[in-house]
Amino acid sequence: MNDRTCIVTRQSGPADQMIRFVADPEGVVVPDLKARLPGRGCWVTAERRHVQRAAQKNLFARALKVDATVPESLDETVDSLLVSALTGMIAMARKAGQVVTGAGKVEAAIRSGQAIAVMHATDAAPDGVRKMDQARHAAMASQGAEIRSFRLLSSDELAIVMADGNVIHLAVLAGQAGEGVVKRAKMLDRYRNGAENGHIAGVPAQETETE
To answer: How many separate domains does the chain show?
Structure first.
């Protein structure tokens, strides 16, 4: 197997669909989202259920070849790190002028073809989301380009990162920072909700060492 093979599913995958884990000097398993930490590492498909299974089945110790300690909250730690990565990139996109907020501006960005993704607060009203989705579907039909939709952050979380007191809808615009936002939103969405389009990213197979 190559060195980017999930220790749970036994399937390999691209970096943006995998999470690397290492053991720190005390033998505690920690996520390495940037895949830069030194030492032996192992990979898990970026879905919460796979991280939980790897912990439950003692797969980290087998793959890392150490008497590893797995924190009970490892899956929550991964979620928090993915949220931080997303909000940090949204902040960068805000400074670059590659996100807009406000229902009117967001809808205009969608219909004009400027938006590459839309983010709704998790506590957004259904009517508002439905209106934006209508604009998004119309834009995709006329322009032939995908406009992803995400509901990952609360209005309070969006307000903090946007330095705005009331953020319910946010349009992500084209550009390096905007594309970075979409990449990290996809990762968090996959982690929380499973693979895209209902695809199951592998099933548990024989649980042996990966390296």
So the answer is: 2
